[in-house]
Design a protein that fits this description.
Blueprint: H1 9-34, H2 45-99, H3 107-130, E1 132-133, E2 136-137, E3 145-150, E4 154-158, E5 171-177, E6 181-185, H4 192-197, E7 200-205, E8 208-213, H5 220-234, E9 238-242, E10 248-255, E11 261-265, E12 279-281, E13 288-291, E14 294-299, E15 302-305, E16 316-319, E17 355-364, E18 367-370, E19 378-381, H6 412-466, H7 470-495, H8 497-505
Helix pairs in contact: 1-7, 2-3, 2-6
Length: 506
């Protein structure tokens, strides 16, 4: 055994172990007190980076969950207001039906019904104008896709959340093909002799059949009128006219190639080209054109942008086009028995690039909800204008009602058209409520459930990486505590070795 004075190696060794054990004891204390095994980047750089990323994801998902819950609350508030409007519309419909009971109503009752309808419409206006969530108005049209058109005969039918905002320039509408209705004009004039002999005229449309057999008491005019009565009786969507040259002209009331009909006559050429033979008439034509230079699909007089169009996806317009532009071909004319799609020879052709008939302007104000923890995880929904002026627009009627706000019931014809518009309005709000319900259930609540599961899994993952196993750490703490105490004791013994050197010097 050697004894040194300048350096006590055993004391230095004990001191080094004491420092190590004390550092380990301090780490254990830190982990137990914080509950984390990674308190700083030095505790595990790779694990620390992963856990920080997971923490940011958890924070984002927590906020997304709150966003989704708020969105559900907004939709529930909106739907409850729509329920009140639905109730008012049902009441208006009941009043209109009461007004149609002319045999039992006097003028005073009709006026009272009209006043009650006006009051209900004002209430709908107030609900739509004042319904809000906090300071955000819901049903005044400020949270939907709105728009307008320029150009005679051009109407905006609908736009969706997929339709882009057109700003102030608008989307140009170009027509390459005018819509027309299936039509037929007889090649042989209907004569009094044919009528007296008993001419059988038959029309078939959409599975419904109207037939009239003339008799000796009929004239040409009464024969045509009786055929019209049969058409009305059996609900055929056709129109029959007697032209100046005495031939019958039949035309479908709906535009497009989806609407056709069949004809037959006892005499060849009066309707069918061959006597007593059913002849099909299907020369209707859909509109054709483009919106903002993007392809569109025509259906009757309606033009809809194709799915996936860059700017106009979800946009639908209607072009009436009656005598709008002299460069456009005239509407399909009833001319002869030949069923084809040719046009009058003196009608000017549309240039290959089409004719610009107007512009449609879209303001995209749909409600957008951030329902995910990352970028581009948004969904949106459009809330239509629920004021009376926003319901049942663009519905053809003889009374000239432009929307639900205009309805009057002071006579039978007005009341009939009013009932049509009220039914359309009820269908529109029912569809809107269904859309809200589907959006809430399938887009928000399903997503909310998924977010909660994802949030739970991320928290679990982050916990595995960062949280301390307290039982294991307590065992380590006890070990480090004992080692620290042992190191302290051994350092004390090592420092006592200098006493042995002093004894040698005595």
């Amino acid at each position: 055994m050697t004894f040194r004075i300048n350096n006590n190696i055993r004391a230095l060794n004990s001191h080094r172990f004491l420092q190590t054990n004390h550092s380990d004891l301090s780490k254990s204390l830190e982990r137990i007190s914080s509950g984390l095994k990674i308190n700083q980047a030095a505790d595990g750089p790779a694990a620390f980076a992963i856990s920080e990323h997971l923490r940011s994801q958890v924070a984002g998902l927590n906020q997304a969950i709150e966003n989704s819950e708020t969105a559900v609350s907004i939709l529930q508030t909106t739907e409850s207001n729509m329920g009140e409007i639905t109730g008012l519309l049902n009441g208006i419909r009941q009043l209109v039906i009461h007004a149609l009971n002319e045999g039992a109503n006097d003028k005073v009752a009709i006026i009272a019904d009209q006043k009650e309808i006006d009051a209900a419409l004002r209430t709908i206006e107030e609900i739509a104008s004042n319904a809000r969530f906090a300071d955000k108005y819901l049903l005044d049209g400020s949270n939907g896709v709105s728009g307008s058109t320029t150009g005679d005969g051009l109407e905006l039918i609908s736009a969706t959340t997929r339709t882009k905002d057109s700003r102030e320039k608008g989307f140009e509408v170009r027509i390459t093909n005018r819509a027309c209705r299936s039509h037929l004009k007889g090649s042989t004039a209907l004569t009094d002799q044919m009528v007296k002999a008993g001419e059988r005229l038959t029309l078939i449309e959409n599975g419904k059949k109207a037939t009239y057999l003339s008799n000796q008491n009929d004239t040409i005019e009464t024969t045509v009128q009786n055929l019209r009565s049969e058409i009305t009786k059996y609900g055929l969507d056709l129109n029959v006219e007697l032209t100046a040259d005495g031939v019958l002209a039949v035309r479908h009331n709906q535009y497009g190639n989806n609407y056709e009909f069949q004809v037959s006559s006892s005499t060849a050429g009066v309707l069918s080209s061959q006597a007593n033979q059913i002849q099909n008439v299907s020369n209707g034509r859909n509109i054709g054109g483009t919106i903002n230079g993007e392809s569109a699909v025509g259906e009757g007089r309606y033009l809809s942008a194709i799915d996936g169009a860059t700017c106009t996806d979800g946009l639908k317009i209607r072009y009436l086009g009656d005598d709008i532009d002299p460069r456009l071909k005239a509407d399909c004319e009833i001319r002869d028995m030949v069923v084809d799609e040719t046009v009058e020879s003196d009608a000017p052709d549309i240039p290959p690039g089409g004719i610009a008939v107007g512009r449609v302007y879209i303001a995209q104000n749909s409600m957008k909800f951030q329902v995910g923890g990352n970028r581009n995880q948004m969904i949106n929904i459009s809330l239509r204008d629920m004021k009376p002026s926003g319901f049942a627009t663009g519905i053809a009627n003889k009374s000239g009602f432009r929307s639900l706000a205009d309805i009057r019931i002071t006579d039978s014809d007005l009341a009939q058209d009013a009932l049509t518009l009220v039914d359309v309005a009820i269908n529109q709000i029912a569809s809107e409520r269904g859309k809200l319900g589907a959006f809430q259930k399938n887009s928000l609540e399903t997503n909310l459930s998924n977010l909660r599961v994802a949030n739970e899994n991320l928290i679990s993952s982050e916990s595995i990486i960062r949280d301390v196993d307290v039982a294991r750490e307590m065992a380590l703490f006890t070990r480090n505590q004992i080692k620290t105490q042992a190191s302290s004791a051994m350092l004390a013994h090592a420092n006592q070795e200098s006493d042995n050197v002093l004894k040698l010097l005595e």
